[in-house]
Design brief:
mainly alpha; globular
């Protein structure tokens, strides 16, 4: 039947009307859509706006009129992260579940709408002290980290000592690297807020680099990607100079970050000239993944750069017709219609198009995060599991598997189906998804996959995310094992709901 039919026909839902291949997105409309469908799918979807405003007051967001609910959920105003956090609390969602997706969009689009912090300095001091206590105890949630970042970047707040900022930035970086899903995206958002502030950019950038340079660090690409959120002069040149083949994690992360900066039109003419020979190095001497990223960035820069790199055949997924209707698209759309009862939700349909395409990597990532924060998550994730494990189309399998790195079905054990696929890409992605999704049931299967050289590195990382130790066979593996022993702490299992 679907939650929309239970509560009556919804008002027209917000939609992003920008061109599908435009690198710029309508953050305001996407945020409004997420708030609207999240409330609609909850118990509060059947209540009046007046009652929901009372509920927001109960969770600490007072003084609003009922008419503003329509304003927030229509896409006519840019929503602050403070309000998004209040929706999380009002709808009994996990801290950071909505904030990670919305904050990531806002930071990537250089939008930072905030509620003013308390004018009472004593109250601010108490709040900072409370947050620091949670950080020291390793129980800070993604929402806590975002609250800390917003407090620190309020110009009325006296900045703490640089040593304190560095301690927080390093701890936050490590937590981001060991986390999955909204636990990851909310921490990534907090780092982005700090990187965008001129006062904190330099020490925070230094601590991110320090964290991802540690021996055995997992998924260092996420740290390199985060550096693209910095606003300091020369950041583009700094990232370009690091883009050399030989370290796939670094190359992939920098490529993601530079793609974001290209989409924001932040590269100068000199930056583009400097980037071209780096792309040539990736294409000539890099791994298969580095070569693919080199061509992807070249395509974003235009035909001149593409011709310098040898004009490879354009992959099928770059065609507009493919993006508009990727394989199994109707299967995904049918699943979301069944779960909601809404015949035509143009926003979720557009997000599916973006999530199943690799034309604009930053949009693909943000679309996946937004779907993962929405009440459509389970339906989309289960469909992706089915496509990844049964589709005869290798590109469709790859798109579905990649989606599951950021989406987890309610029944997380479903992710273990990927581990039995004959497609190595699906298996590798399933290993990472099982670790980031906190699928403890996958541990025995991952231990077996450790005996296969194709999957050993990813399986060891996933087992580390799940808190399991495995016998190591080399100095490299020993360093990775030691990283997890040092940094896993008592924090949340990746992908878990933090309370």
């Amino acid at each position: 039947m679907g939650w929309a039919r239970i509560r009556g026909a919804p008002r027209r839902l917000p939609v992003d009307r920008r061109d599908l291949l435009d690198p710029v997105i309508d953050v305001t409309a996407r945020t409004a859509w997420l708030l609207r469908v999240s409330r609609l799918a909850s118990w509060w979807g059947s209540t009046t706006a007046e009652r929901f405003v009372d509920r927001l007051t109960e969770v600490g967001y007072p003084g609003r009129h009922a008419s503003q609910v329509s304003l927030w959920e229509s896409g006519r105003v840019t929503t602050s992260l403070g309000l998004v956090g209040a929706y999380e609390r009002a709808l009994d969602l996990a801290p950071g579940e909505l904030l990670g997706a919305v904050g990531g969009m806002q930071q990537t689009a250089r939008i930072h709408a905030v509620d003013r912090q308390p004018a009472d300095r004593a109250q601010v001091f108490r709040r900072l002290s409370q947050l620091d206590e949670r950080i020291v105890a390793d129980i800070a949630t993604g929402a806590d980290w975002i609250a800390l970042a917003e407090l620190l970047t309020d110009p009325r707040v006296t900045p703490p000592a640089e040593s304190t900022v560095r301690r927080w930035a390093y701890t936050l970086s490590v937590q981001m690297l060991r986390s999955g899903h909204f636990d990851y995206s909310s921490r990534w958002t907090a780092l982005s807020i700090l990187l965008a502030d001129p006062l904190f950019a330099e020490p925070v950038e230094a601590e991110i680099v320090s964290a991802i340079a540690e021996p055995g660090v997992p998924l260092a690409r996420n740290g390199w990607d985060a550096l693209s959120q910095a606003t300091r002069p020369g950041i583009a040149r700094s990232l370009i100079d690091r883009l050399v083949p030989g370290d796939e994690e670094r190359s992939l992360g920098l490529a993601f970050g530079l793609a974001t900066m290209i989409g924001r039109v932040e590269l100068s003419r000199d930056d583009v000239f400097r980037l071209r020979p780096r792309l040539r190095l990736l294409v000539d001497d890099g791994s298969a993944a580095e070569q693919e990223m080199g061509y992807m960035l070249a395509g974003r820069l235009g035909p001149t750069t593409m011709s310098e790199l040898g004009h490879p055949p354009a992959p099928v997924w770059t065609r507009r017709s493919y993006v508009e209707k990727p394989p199994h698209y109707e299967q995904y759309v049918d699943a979301v219609r069944r779960t909601s009862g809404i015949e035509h939700d143009a926003m979720i349909e557009r997000l599916l198009q973006e999530a199943l395409s690799e034309v604009l990597l930053e949009k693909q990532q943000m679309a996946n995060q937004l779907i993962g924060a929405s009440p459509y998550r389970d339906a989309v994730a289960l469909t992706a599991v089915e496509v990844a494990t049964s589709s005869p189309d290798p590109i469709a399998r790859r798109g579905a598997a990649n989606m599951l790195r950021q989406l987890t079905p309610d029944d997380r054990v479903q992710l273990t189906r990927l581990l039995d696929s004959p497609d190595p890409h699906v298996v590798t992605t399933g290993i990472v998804a099982s670790g980031r999704g906190g699928v403890q049931e996958a541990a025995a299967r991952l231990t077996v996959l450790c005996t296969d050289p194709r999957y050993r590195a990813e399986a060891l990382m996933a087992l580390g995310m799940l808190g399991h130790q495995v016998r190591v066979d080399s100095a490299v593996e020993l360093r990775a094992s030691q990283w997890w022993m040092r940094h896993r702490g008592d924090g949340p299992t990746p992908g878990s709901q933090v309370v």
